[in-house]
Write a structure and sequence with these properties.
Layout lengths: L5 E6 L2 E6 L10 H16 L5 E5 L4 E3 L4 H4 L4 H6 L4 H4 L9 E5 L2 E3 L1 H8 L2 E5 L3 E3 L13 H9 L1 H10 L3 E2 H7 L4 E3 L4 H13 L3 H13 L5 H15 L3 H11 L10
Parallel strand pairs: 2-3, 3-5, 4-6, 5-7, 6-8, 7-10
Antiparallel strand pairs: 1-2, 8-9
Helix pairs in contact: 6-7, 10-11
The structure holds acetoacetyl-coenzyme A.
Length: 258
């Protein structure tokens, strides 16, 4: 039987996936990425889950792609097997929100995985970086594209070219992470935040995610039009009727997620 590199559990309506390869600082090998993809797809398909959290260990969210596994690969090995595309991009198909709860190292593919999540909560111990340049390659899972979008060209370029790490304070100042949390509160805080999201109308949450993500893929006028069409479609939802009626009646809404 293959090792379990990703632990999957539920906390109410929150799906929690914990990267579990501590001895290798959660280095992201193929089996781990397969298991992470399977865990994400299972929660996405589960009507009882409204938000997903991915976390690692105290020492590392993930220290990158598995260098030991990659070191002898040839061009044909990576090209033919679609290395990275095959199982790293599953997360982009997930329609429910995914939060990265990062403590310790998020380097290389670990930083890229965190950036593929919808937002990052950072422990005060978090360290982010794209150190691939130090091992004679470049980021391979979106780092050169998502980091500049998150922190601007100058800082992203410096980090990608030097491989230096940024700590949680710098990451928050630069807009890479939404908030910093004390390390011993990280998981609790991430679950609380995910629980708040999971308590909202699920279709509204999915539309909000889709619409914010559109900001990266379209012009402003196209994005605003996309948002307006989704906003209009909210009025076909039972949850819109319930949410607005509850506000007017000064009570808590009971969403049916439809
Ligand atoms: N791949 C494979 N194994 C890794 C690893 C990685 N990315 N990162 C750490 N490990 C392993 C180490 O080999 C070591 O294993 P052993 O105990 O069997 O020797 C174990 O994890 C602990 O690591 P260290 O002893 O190095 O721990 P440290 O505290 O001294 O240093 C660190 C921590 C600074 C994170 C250091 O481990 C490090 O620099 N890791 C590599 C970071 C890196 O280069 N990441 C980019 C990978 S390439 C990539 O991700 C491509 C892409 O874009 C998809």
């Amino acid at each position: 039987m293959s090792e379990i590199f990703v632990l999957s559990e539920t906390r109410g309506r929150v799906g929690l996936l914990t990267l579990n390869r501590p001895k290798a600082l959660n280095a992201l090998n193929d089996q781990l990425m397969d298991q992470l993809g399977a865990g994400l797809l299972a929660f996405d398909a589960n009507d009882d889950i409204g938000c997903i959290v991915i976390t690692g260990s105290e020492k590392a969210f993930a220290a990158g792609a598995d260098i030991g596994a990659m070191k002898d690969w040839s061009y044909m090995d990576v090209y033919k097997t679609e290395y990275i595309t095959r199982n790293w991009e599953t997360i982009r198909r997930i329609r429910k929100p995914v939060i990265a709860a990062v403590a310790g190292y998020a380097l290389g593919g670990g930083c890229e995985l965190a950036m593929m999540c919808d937002f990052i909560l950072a422990a005060d111990t978090a360290k982010f970086g794209q150190p691939e340049i130090k091992i004679g390659v470049i980021p391979g899972s979106g780092g050169t594209q998502r980091l500049p979008r998150a922190v601007g060209k100058s800082k992203a370029m410096e980090m990608v070219l030097t491989g230096r790490m940024m700590d949680a304070v710098e990451a928050e100042r630069a807009g890479l992470v939404s908030r910093i949390v004390a390390a011993d509160r990280l998981l609790e805080d991430a679950i609380e935040t995910a629980t708040v999201i999971a308590g909202m109308s699920l279709p509204a949450v999915m539309m909000a995610k889709e619409s914010v993500n559109r900001a990266y893929e379209s012009s402003l006028s196209e994005g605003v039009l996309f948002e307006r069409r989704l906003f209009h479609s909210c009025f076909a939802m039972a949850d819109q009727k319930e949410g607005m009626a509850a506000f007017v009646e000064k009570r808590k809404p009971t969403f049916k997620h439809m």
